[in-house]
Write a structure and sequence with these properties.
Shape: elongated
Radius of gyration: 26 Å
Strand content: 5-15%
Structural class: alpha+beta
Strand order of the largest sheet: 2-3-1-4
Order of helices and strands: HHHHHHHEHHEEHEHH
Oligomer: single chain
Number of helices: 12
Length: 359
């Protein structure tokens, strides 16, 4: 019976993860904004719930303490990520996935140091706390004003009440009572969890349909869309476009010696230099390490490189840089938007090493 109940929980979590993924779309499209933030947090929460169910099945079939520890950690992570995601959508100071994962890792290690029954009680206390926090955060405006938020609030409040009942039973009848048949048994808990997962998934999709999926200016997703649109325009008008990738070969050294923010500042200076030298081109930072430039296919690439280097040197002077980092250029003539997408793909960027054409 316990395995059947846990399988129901796994199925519910799997369906929830699939629904959230399909609600957002492919990971390489240009949609972003608040909907992407919601899917990122709530989708990972669904995956954590899926792993929790799998660990619980493993534990029920003789997996031992390691399976129990994994189930406890991922269970708490799932509830915590819902709260963190709601805070982010409410534009409040974010908790961050790393903080939630740290709580799960702490519980993971603690499970090996104390009796399993006591670890279960601690896990239940964590679930109660995160469910209460999540319910309050989902009720808070602006998130709480969206259709579907009330279903999230009700689901989390119900789960908090059930977790509180389990805690009361554990405190009055002992921690071992949570493993006995009854209303707070592992079987009942798995079935309640499955129902809550389904309700949260439905509520999340309803909320997500109201959220803006347009990426904010200055984000990689926004720049990818702008570069693709300019490519499509040039291809329609001139049957082709020139795609130039500009890199700083020293970027990793700069980040190590200074900071990631300094590296970003230099890449933005490169993009600004291109705007200065080629006002007719469209520039973007669709990735962490590369500046992309889309220009007419007839552009003189040699003159372009010289103009960009001079403009970049002027930018470095304004930033009080004594040394001007070397720029590496890679030029490609593209005749389809898909070709530009391929250039922006991570696997393409990882395959390139060192200075490129024109470096």
């Amino acid at each position: 019976m316990i395995v059947l109940a846990l399988l129901c929980s796994i199925t519910a979590a799997g369906v929830a993860a699939a629904i959230l993924y399909l609600a957002h779309g492919r990971p390489d499209d240009d949609r972003g904004g608040e909907r992407a933030e919601m899917v990122r947090y709530f989708g990972v929460a669904a995956i954590a719930a899926l792993l929790c169910g799998a660990m619980n099945v493993l534990e029920a079939t003789g997996g031992g303490t390691a399976a129990a520890a994994g189930g406890n950690a991922t269970n708490v992570m799932a509830a915590g990520l819902l709260w963190a995601g709601a805070r982010r959508l409410n534009h409040r100071r974010t908790v961050g996935a790393i903080g939630i994962v740290s709580v799960g890792v702490f519980l993971l290690g603690l499970t090996f140091l104390i009796p399993l029954d006591d670890a279960t009680v601690l896990k239940t206390a964590g679930l109660f706390a995160f469910a209460v926090l999540g319910a309050f955060e989902c009720a808070r405006r602006p998130f709480g004003a969206l259709p579907g938020a009330s279903l999230l609030v009700g689901s989390l409040a119900l789960y908090a009440a059930y977790s509180a009942a389990r805690l009361v039973v554990a405190l009055t009848a002992g921690a071992a009572s949570l493993t006995q048949p009854g209303a707070v048994s592992p079987e009942a808990t798995a079935l309640v969890s499955a129902g809550v997962i389904v309700a949260v998934a439905v509520g999340t999709v309803r909320v997500g349909r109201q959220l803006d999926d347009r990426p904010s200016p200055g984000t990689p997703a926004h720049d990818r869309g702008a570069l693709r649109r300019e490519t499509a325009r040039l291809i329609e008008a001139h049957d082709g476009a020139n795609a130039t990738l500009i890199r700083l070969p020293e970027i990793h050294l700069i980040r190590t010696a200074h900071s990631a923010r300094q590296g970003r500042l230099l890449l933005e200076a490169v993009a600004d230099a291109v705007d200065d030298a080629l006002p007719e081109a469209v520039t973007g930072l669709p990735s962490r390490d590369t500046v992309f430039v889309i220009a007419p296919a007839a552009i003189d690439t040699t003159a372009m490189e010289s103009s960009v280097r001079r403009a970049f040197a002027r930018r470095m002077f304004l930033l009080d840089y004594d040394d001007v980092p070397v720029l590496a250029f890679e030029h490609s003539c593209v005749r389809t938007v898909d070709a530009v997408s391929a250039l922006m793909a991570p696997r393409h960027r990882r395959s390139r090493r060192g200075p490129l054409d024109g470096g």
